[in-house]
Amino acid sequence: MGYVLSAVGRVLEQPTAWGAAWEMALLAGPLWAAALLGLLLGWAWRPRWASGLVVATADDGGSPAAAAQPPFATLDFWKAQLPARLRAPLGTAVQQREGDTDAVQRNRGTVALGRSSETETATVAVGMADLVNLWRLVEGADGGPAWTKMMEKSLPTMTYRAWRRDAQTGPPQYQSSSIFENASPEEVRDFFGDDEFRMSNRWDDMLIYHKTLEECRTTGTMKVHWVRKFPFFCSDREYIIARRIWKLGGAYYCVTKGIPCSSIPRRSRPRRVDLYYSSWCIRAVESRRGNGGGRGATACEVLLFHHEDMGIPYEIAKLGIRQGMWGCVKRIEPGLRAYQQARAAGAPPSRSALMARINTKVSADGFTRQSSSSSSGGDGPETADDAQETENKKPATRSHAAARLLVLGGAVALACCTLDQGLLTKALIFGVARRFVGQRKTL
């Protein structure tokens, strides 16, 4: 109170109106800075319905059709805001009332997945459609957005590259290529599927709990319960996943995805992750560092495709993943070498490693022809040049330019004048500002 009274006194003591206005501006400056900070942070943690409004406005460009049918005017939009466990009953009721053909097909697929994973074996939770989807990702024929390269790192016996792309809806998607020297696809397959060694060796120090809920000894499909440790400012995350491995030609395709499970009740901590996809292709490749003979000329490549909704704002998640990705990845290589040494010493394989050896064999020729014919109607994946050209052709109105200058100018002033104590805070402010004005730049 005393500070406010003294500030008012300084304003009244000014002999001219300009001096009084200057004192008032100095008094209101911190308040405006705090308001701008609250706006930016509030936008970073905005609810999903607000994100849907902005995405629809940016994509539609203010067209009459978009104005006639805003996204929040549809029942499907509001259904998407409900918790996952409430969507299926609501979807069934809507089917009976409206009889919408597309909605019926979509909700029937959701209900069928839930029933198959909860009342039958885990085998039907991961099927041939998942293999086709993974195969298209590996071949670059999924028709998704272009990939942007993030990093390229290497160790004496390992080479790593990573890419990222932003989907129209959902979390960012990641692709990586890891090439391990002096390793066979079978060794790497068992290594990634061995949950017991993953925890005992601590090469994946985020995994703190695992339990096999169901398994099929015919197909090798497993339903697994995971709990992963997150940083101190986040609660741990819980996963109910199904995974299955196919052998297609000389490569192994493993699909791992989140599935519903009513037998394990939800808790506030750890927080359950419903949207989870982490699948990989393991295949033998020529060594990039081989000497032309013997075992040193063989290598193994792991192509990983991963995305998940961790319940963290996407911009913050992208920043954290970019900073911590290599620190986690470089622990895989010494873990793999320790696994090879344990196998060479005669250590018995674990239960999960034995299940990873049960694969469904698929004919490469027939599968390739069928998958190619089913996807021949598409236009193919978009290249980076095409995506950039399309972005450059979008018109920019004066109002949009003014909004961009306003938000970016406020972010510059706030970052430089008030929050000069941390690089992370500045990166967060600029990242959210770019997200607000519709820029598609990487952090």
The general outline is elongated
Overall structural domain count: 5
CATH class group of the largest domain = Alpha Beta
Number of DSSP strands? 11
Strand content: 15-25%
Helicity range:
40-55%
What is the chain-wise order of helices and strands?
HHHHHHHHEEEHHEEEEEEEHHHEHHHH
CATH homology group of the largest domain: START domain
Enumerate how many helices there are, as a single number: 17
Distance between the termini: 42 Å
Uncertain residue ranges: 52-73, 92-121, 291-297, 377-399, 417-426, 439-443
Q: Would you give the CATH topology of the largest domain?
A: Alpha-D-Glucose-1,6-Bisphosphate, Chain A, domain 4
**What can be said about the biggest beta sheet?**
11 strands, mixed
| Mean pLDDT reading | 74
Structural class: alpha+beta
**Computed CA radius of gyration, to the nearest angstrom:** 26 Å
In CATH, the architecture of the largest domain is: 2-Layer Sandwich
Properties at a glance:
single chain; 11-stranded mixed beta sheet; 11 strands; 49% helix; disordered C terminus; lipid binding; START_lipid_transfer; START-like_dom_sf; START_lipid-bd_dom
Entry summary:
49% of the residues lie in helices and 20% in strands. The chain has 443 residues and is of the alpha+beta class.
Structure, explained:
With 443 residues, the protein is of the alpha+beta class. The protein folds into 5 domains: 2-38; 45-78, no CATH class; 82-120; 125-385, Alpha-D-Glucose-1,6-Bisphosphate, Chain A, domain 4 (2-Layer Sandwich); 390-437, no CATH class. It is 49% helix and 20% strand. It contains 17 helices and 11 strands. Strands 1, 2, 3, 4, 5, 6, 7, 8, 9, 10 and 11 form an 11-stranded mixed β-sheet that branches. A hairpin with a 6-residue loop joins strand 4 and strand 5 (222-228). Helix 1 packs across helix 2 (17-44) and helix 2 (17-44) crosses helix 17 (423-437). The protein is elongated, with a radius of gyration of 26 Å. Mean pLDDT is 74; it is low at 52-73, 92-121, 291-297, 377-399, 417-426 and 439-443.
